Each structure stands twice: as C-alpha cells, then as structure tokens.
Amino acid sequence: AQSVTQLGSHVSVSEGALVLLRCNYSSSVPPYLFWYVQYPNQGLQLLLKYTTGATLVKGINGFEAEFKKSETSFHLTKPSAHMSDAAEYFCAVSGNRDDKIIFGKGTRLHILP
Amino acid sequence: DAGVIQSPRHEVTEMGQEVTLRCKPISGHNSLFWYRQTMMRGLELLIYFNNNVPIDDSGMPEDRFSAKMPNASFSTLKIQPSEPRDSAVYFCASRRDMNTEAFFGQGTRLTVV
User: Fold this and answer.
1) What is the chain A residue with the closest CA to B105?
2) Closest among A105, A75, A94, A106 to A33, alpha carbons compared
C-alpha cells in the first residue's frame, strides 16, 4: 500500500526566495513519484515525475525534486519564487505493480511581494 | 489530443436527485481514475479502471455511488440519490501505463442543495 504525507498545508515565501515543499511517501514496492500543480478552478497539471534513473528530476517552470530512498522523501524546490507560482501543489505516489495513484493532501503556496 | 474531457463543468441539483458525471479519457490510455476533491479530505481516489475493468472501488463512499466504463472512450460516475455532503469537485484522469503520469480533466463542480 502507498501513502503520501505533505508537511505544511500552507507555505508562504517572499518573491525571489527559495521554495521548498516537503513530501514523504510510504510504499511497499519501488515507487513512482509525481508532483502536480493546481491553479484555481483548474485540473491538476504535472510538474515533474520520478520513475527510474537519475534521482534529481527537473520539471517545468524551474522546479526540481530529488528522490531520496533512505529518507523516503521527494521534496520539491525552486531557487527563486515568482508570483505566478502561487497555487496548490500535490505530491503523489504509485507503485510498479498497479495503476493506483495516491495523492497527498496538498500544500498551498503563497508568494509574498 | 484534446485531453481528458469531463462534462458537465458545473452541476447544481437538489437533494435526492440522480447525478451523472461523464468522462472521455485520452485515446490510447489504459487506465481511468475518478477522484473527489474537498477542502476537508483533499483528493480522494474513488475508483479506477484498467482496460475498462474496475480494479479497485474501495474509495467509493457508499452504495449511492456507482461507476461504469462501457468502452475505452467513455466512463460515468453516478450518484443516486444525491446528498448535500456529496458537494465537491470530481475529477477524471487517465494514464497510459504504470510508469507514466496521469492526465486530469478540468473537473465537475457538483453542488447538491
């Protein structure tokens, strides 16, 4: 069974500051990991994913995440926040034995001018 | 491809009425998911299909909820009878296979009064 924990339902950062959104997962099989972003009144859009290979994954809009198996983490970072990054971010996990994708409860990112 | 298409985008109905939500997945995708999003519970997986067959419906809240996938290009989620606590945004998503991401529709915002 898989599960995801996102620390912090709300995170505020200043424009230009580092963005760090935390995600820890639990999986009984090698995980596939995803970060999605949701803007108001829209569906979820993929930011980046880890399936196999390189553990540092780069995504759209300057975001990246690092898979750390020893820490069961997949934290999302961006060096410099932009006002357009204000949205809700979801971490998700699935396994290599079935198609189920389980989402965390989400973190709402606020960007302060 | 037009992406995952959901209809209607908004639905307002009276308690006790039947509600049917519709989804057209991306052509060639083998798995289809129905999620429900609320402030309290976040993004919950209700049911998913693989090759049109329901695989896991453990997230369906009650017998009032049912889902079908009669063919590879169409799925429905039905609530009968509807209750105010069913008010939420319902998302459909599809996925080609296990090591790829899921693509989401725009969602159906359901309000039961």
Assistant:
1) A43
2) A94
Question: Closest by alpha carbon to A64, among A53, A52, A50, A51?
Answer: A50
Question: Closest Cα partner for B30 from B6, B52, B4, B58?
Answer: B52
pLDDT in tens, B4-47: 999 999 999 999 999 999 999 999 999 999 999 998 889 999 99
Cβ–Cβ gap A103/B35 under 8 Å: yes
Quick check: A101 and B104 CB within 8 A?
Answer: no
pLDDT per residue over B36-76, tens digit each? 999 888 999 999 999 999 999 999 988 999 999 999 999 99
How many angstroms away from the CA of B81 is the closest CA of chain A?
26
* Closest residue to B106, CB basis, from A42, A52, A94: A42
Q: Which two tokens stand for residue A107?
A: 């973190």
